[in-house]
Amino acid sequence: MTPRLLLLHGFLSGSAAFDGLRAMLGDEAVSLAPDLPGYGDAPGPKSPREYTLNLLADAIEPILALEQPTHVLGHSMGGIVALELARRHPGAFTRVGIAGLPIYESRSDALRYLHRRGTFYRMVLHSHRTSHLACEAMSASRWGWGILPPLVGRGQPRRHMEASVRHSQAAHEGALEGVIFAGLVAGLARETRSPVELLHGDRDPSAPVRRVETLATATGWGLTLVRGGRHQVVITQPDLAAAWVRERVLGDGAL
């Protein structure tokens, strides 16, 4: 039976994040890649305070009922959503895959880490409204596409870069404050019964690698570290990501 793989994108992203991976997997899996609420053309709440993990998981529930995926793979914030779905539906997924899992205890904890990562992170986190206005301007025009990919894209396909700025204000602020910085991962890990496989770049500036290693040790989850890999490795290295998916998420072998 062909596996059915649900793909969940992360913050400042979209379903286009998985274009390369889906092409590499071909007909090895039936892949489903929706836009999360507030991203792309997907409707979402108007208030950032309404943008919660429950809202994101609730939005995916109809897809689970209709498509009945056998596996789920989440990137970054999408990995947190994947854990929530696995918690809600014990035994529904043969395996859960997570690439670039961000583990933060609180907003202040996240800011202490991310402010040391460089100017781009400080600019994005300084003011949600201001940084989202930049996204809106970028989405509405093409003035920045000549400089944006070299500065922050690091090999990401243009289609994904364009999708990364198509989101609502509520999704921009709410995703960070209500999901990524909300200290949810530890509790979800305790309640998740499905087997989990992690993929993480050892030079990820957005998601602390030491915390992922500690979590993998505590839970017994599988962990594949990508040497020199950064946060978007599942997007920028689809061949490597596809090999990991084949062996660790869809199969039981070793890389």
Question: Any overview of this molecule?
Answer:
This protein has 255 residues and is of the alpha/beta class. It has a single domain, classed as Rossmann fold, CATH 3.40.50.1820. It is 47% helix and 11% strand. It is built from 13 helices and 6 strands. The chain has helices at 19-25, 53-67, 77-88, 107-114, 119-126, 128-140, 148-153, 158-163, 169-180, 185-191, 209-219, 233-236, 238-249; strands spanning 4-8, 30-32, 71-75, 95-99, 196-201, 222-226. Strands 2-1-3-4-5-6 form a 6-stranded parallel beta sheet, sandwiched between helices. Helix 11 links the parallel strand 5 and strand 6 (222-226). The protein is globular. The two termini are 23 Å apart.
Summarize the topology:
Elements: E1 4-8, H1 19-25, E2 30-32, H2 53-67, E3 71-75, H3 77-88, E4 95-99, H4 107-114, H5 119-126, H6 128-140, H7 148-153, H8 158-163, H9 169-180, H10 185-191, E5 196-201, H11 209-219, E6 222-226, H12 233-236, H13 238-249
Parallel strand pairs: 1-2, 1-3, 3-4, 4-5, 5-6
